[in-house]
Amino acid sequence: MTTALKIHSSDHVATLLEAAVAGETIEIGDTAVIARADIPKGHKVALRDIAVSETIVKFGFPIGCATVAITAGDHVHSHNLATRLSGTLDYRYEPHATPRAAVLGARTFLGYVREDGRVGTRNEIWILPTVGCVGRTAERIAAEAARRHQGQVDGVHAFAHPYGCSQLGDDLGATRRMLAALAMHPNAGGVLLVGLGCESNQLSRLLKDVPDSYRGRIRAVVAQDAADEVEEGLAAVADLAAEAAKTKRQSVGLDKLVLGVKCGGSDGFSGLTANPLVGRMSDVVTAAGGSAIVTEIPEIFGAEQMLMDRAESREVFDSVVDVVNDFKTYFLSHGEPVSENPSPGNVAGGITTLEEKSLGAVQKAGHAVLTDVKRYGERIERTGLTLLEAPGNDAVSSTALAAAGATVILFTTGRGTPLGFPVPTVKIASNSELALRKPGWIDFDAGQVLTDGFEAAEEALIDRILAIASGAETAAERNGEREIAFWKRGVTL
């Protein structure tokens, strides 16, 4: 006998907590069905007969429709369930946010308070190349500077990328805005900008996007103008590190924390454990006066109304509609359906349609009121929950979260990934098997939700987050995994 979890009373399917073989009894609370086929762990079983073309419900919401008649006990997946998503939609403004009350007491962490009042979770020197041509130069400077200044600052890191030239218009502008936003990040106690000299992304123009108040902790080297660009870069980093070392950690409240929330390589458990657990972290931080940022616009298709219903105002609602429909138009203009998701890994893990994936993914935003919407490359301006425009790609969206101001990223995964990003990236496994199998990647096991409940997991995760915010390394940091990636939408010259 195996067990399955039914999430909402109106659901037509349940998620298997262990694999089932044909003929085996599957217990779902006080009821049971007989498996009519072998069904993998994390996949769905039908709880009742479902007619062809009938809408199938999970999480209390539609996740698609039956493509053939389904019998109770059947495996419900790609062979008999299909998306109902198509193009852009007209949405209704019916606000009814119901924020969850904070259940955890006052918490603090040790952060770096910056001149503008923002608080970093790291005091690092970041080296940002304006163009891909000097990416390796930036990495050479960072490697030697890290050796020279070990213990003086929390680290010296270069973030190479292939862009900054052969770009035009808004595409080039987006790259420039992203670099400028990263240069102002509170986790960077100092920033070295390394330019080539002849690139489209001219250093002088980039600096115009950085307010004067940030210039004191920014230095620049133009490689074509330098006798020895590496030595000039090292001298600049030495100056930055000496100044950054004067800032020490001090105790601050959760109102100074900015969480970015992200999921990658989801499985059938992501929407049951890791994502709703991260949603509780979003609720805790925003209730304390802090900030949470949710993104991955293509991975809220089918669940976007849930966020729209929590918009603080009609203006915020309209901004959500614009971002969602603009992203759908972006897909359609390239001849791609808006439902071109889930990924092969998602499907193997038990997720069938984009609606199902989105209904699980949107839970990372918790129940907080949606206070603002920002476009790609913009920085958050308000506390509370912000929706950020960015694609679902792990590296692109996580870089966008960092550029927007996230000082810690909570990254849920059911499949696992070693990737890390500019800010501490907390990998949260949706299932205990992954956490045990890949301890070098995973920082927290959300599979414990199924055995210990949400309250115990919530206490454990907030403690882990605050330890990391106070300086404890993530698995990605220990492994030297730090990447950035930009969303390129224009032509290449």
Automatic annotation (TrEMBL):
Keyword rRNA-binding: no
One Gene Ontology term of the molecular function aspect: lyase activity
Domain of life: Bacteria
All copies of domain SAF, residue ranges: 11-82
Keywords, sorted A to Z: Lyase
GO annotation, biological process: D-galacturonate catabolic process
InterPro entries reported in the protein's UniProt record: GD_AH_C, GD_AH_second, SAF, SAF_UxaA/GarD, UxaA_altronate/galactarate_dh
One Pfam family in the UniProt entry: GD_AH_second
Membrane keyword on record: no
Coiled-coil regions listed in the entry: none
PANTHER family from the UniProt entry: ALTRONATE DEHYDRATASE, ALTRONATE/GALACTARATE DEHYDRATASE
Similarity-based family: Belongs to the UxaA family.
Official protein name in the record: Altronate dehydratase
